[in-house]
Amino acid sequence: xxxxxxxxxxxxxxxxxxxxxxxxxxxxxxxxxxxxxxxxxxxxxxxxxxxxxxxxxxxxxxxxxxxxxxxxxxxxxxxxxxxxxxxxxxxxxxxxxxxxxxxxxxxxxxxxxxxxxxxxxxxxxxxxxxxxxxxxxxxxxxxxxxxxxxxxxxxxxxxxxxxxxxxxxxxxxxxxxxxxxxxxxxxxxxxxxxxxxxxxxxxxxxxxxxxxxxxxxxxxxxxxxxxxxxxxxxxxxxxxxxxxxxxxxxxxxxxxxxxxxxxxxxxxxxxxxxxxxxxxxxxxxxxxxxxxxxxxxxxxxxxxxxxxxxxxxxxxxxxx
Length: 320
Hints:
The chain is mostly beta strands and 320 residues long. It has seven helices and 19 strands.
């Protein structure tokens, strides 16, 4: 069996806050004007990615991992997570502000939902003027202050609002209260989990006049009430893997590609590349596959030697 770079059919999600930038910025074939998410690589139940290229076209990621666990996810990842694929990759288009929300940690998510927690990171791919995000509290807080401001609809007054621009990266550990603001396209890397506790939704209603469900009680013991540092500064050395995030759940590097890089992997983990600008090729076994901005590609762990070639900004993700 010759393992090769895999691409998957995007899974589109309509959201009350979605728009059309997944098409206009990332060339995704969306068909509505309120598409908020493109799930690029997922094994979430009911939303499992399906291969669109090569010998495995039409097969699900889950089926391939079940057949070739070590070769697909890597020896160390298989030993740690079994045949579960531990990460979820998305692109998000926020035409309007997302709800203010929080994600539980592994212990709480396991206890309540039999799920992983949801540590995540954002890479800003496009930003309108004055686009902002909410990340954590302005100063250390507590449950009483939080509830009082939530009750009085003054929660924004104690939360940290940050203006963002293209290339900014934010790392959100579980418990961090957060929201992506209007006018942003974001690449998101997270644990495989769809558990979100919605705290406040600006009193919006859907097309039927209904307010979305809030999870105020569930969120209480999931929240980290302390001030946190979320923005990540990193080097951008050309044709090198520049580390952005290294956490127990994933490592993410930034590669400013200009020319050719020979890549050598250990086989312990899969690798995922997200093209956030430009275009590039992966050369392996006398074949060349081409990728453009908005593409996501999974490199099976058994593919240990290959070449990246082109002019692009790439996120490189694996588990170490």
